[in-house]
């Protein structure tokens, strides 16, 4: 009788365990591919990021129960805990939290009162182990948005072929070695409705306004409309380069 009771209880436990979906390991770096794909259509960059954001990248470590995300401006750390149905919950310092779950090979950030539902895919980008959070997303975005060969139609270096590398280097654009696309934060506040990027040669660099329309890219000087003690408010000045994608 006792043996039968033990077997009965064991069967109940096993059935209960079987009814709980397997909890898959979600460790690794996940990027917002939907935002990258939208940007790759060749339109306004920040509109694409806002439409499919705001979060751009997750870095998750199940073993150490941590999860970090970035929205292109700030990096936020949370504590990772198991949740019902094989999902995970990320609790942030304070009272807010968000749920993460897998649908096939896609990581889903659940909708909250503050943010929409967002899908992420595992990053295939190779970056340095000590690279800042968001580097994988930026690298993939650079390749999708500005990758390939361009030709200077007007401006310094007319006729040059220009290449924007995924790691932020640029060749063929006179007096420019590196670039950084503005994704969010102060640079976005300073450029308002316009897209902007930073162009640098050695230790010298400056913000520029740009307009992407399909296979055409126009880069303007960034003029400042703010008062001397206020945050800069950039607007497009002189057209410096007009480029066409080959």
From TrEMBL:
In Swiss-Prot or TrEMBL terms, this protein is called Lipoprotein
Source organism superkingdom: Bacteria
Q: Which organism is it from?
A: Pseudomonas fragi
Signal peptide annotation:
1-18
UniProt KW keywords:
Signal
């Amino acid at each position: 009788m006792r043996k039968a009771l033990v077997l009965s209880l064991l069967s109940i436990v096993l059935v209960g365990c079987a009814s709980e979906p397997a909890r898959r390991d979600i460790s690794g770096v996940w990027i917002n591919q939907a935002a990258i794909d939208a940007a790759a259509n060749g339109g306004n960059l920040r509109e694409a990021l806002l439409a499919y954001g705001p979060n751009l990248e997750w870095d998750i470590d199940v073993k150490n129960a941590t999860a970090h995300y970035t929205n292109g401006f700030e990096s936020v750390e949370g504590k990772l805990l198991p949740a019902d149905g094989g999902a995970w919950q990320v609790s942030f310092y304070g009272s807010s939290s968000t749920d993460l779950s897998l649908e096939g090979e896609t990581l889903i950030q659940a909708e909250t009162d503050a943010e929409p539902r967002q899908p992420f895919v595992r990053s295939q980008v190779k970056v340095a182990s000590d690279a800042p959070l968001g580097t994988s997303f930026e690298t993939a975005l650079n390749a999708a948005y500005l990758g390939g060969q361009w030709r200077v139609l007007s401006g310094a270096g007319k006729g040059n072929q220009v290449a924007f590398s995924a790691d932020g280097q640029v060749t063929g654009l006179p007096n420019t070695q590196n670039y950084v696309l503005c994704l969010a934060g102060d640079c976005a506040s300073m450029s308002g409705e316009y897209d902007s990027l930073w162009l640098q040669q050695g230790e010298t660099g400056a913000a520029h306004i740009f307009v992407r329309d399909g296979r055409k890219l126009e880069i303007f000087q960034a003029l400042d409309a703010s008062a001397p003690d206020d945050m800069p408010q950039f607007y497009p000045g002189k057209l410096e380069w007009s480029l066409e994608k080959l």
